[in-house]
Amino acid sequence: MPILICIVDDEEELVHNLQIELKALRPEWEIKTFPDGMKAIQEIVKGQTSLVLTDIAMPDMDGYELFWRIKDYNESIPVIMMTGFGYDPNHVLVRAKVDGLKDVLFKPFEPEILVDLIDKLLNK
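^ thats the sequence. predicted structure below, dont judge the formating
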């Protein structure tokens, strides 16, 4: 089955650049981008998604809610959250980690680091 990565973030320029960088490093991956969690969920329930990379702070549905909807649908889909915020003990990132989130990237990050993490998660 081909690898389908879903990137969910309301920052259009960041998503566009990340898509280009990932395709340059892994041209065999299919990269789909979504400006919000609801549109991403519509793709995820089609059953082809290999991994989801989501921002935490988004309008309508934050990354924490998206994480839980994905896990309710299929807990085997790896989720990586990315954030531009530092550590805050009350942040949704802390709740998500308590609830099972394992992988977080702090913006800005190098695309190679993301690719290495995705490779690791998909080859488990």
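The two ends are 16 Å apart (CA to CA).
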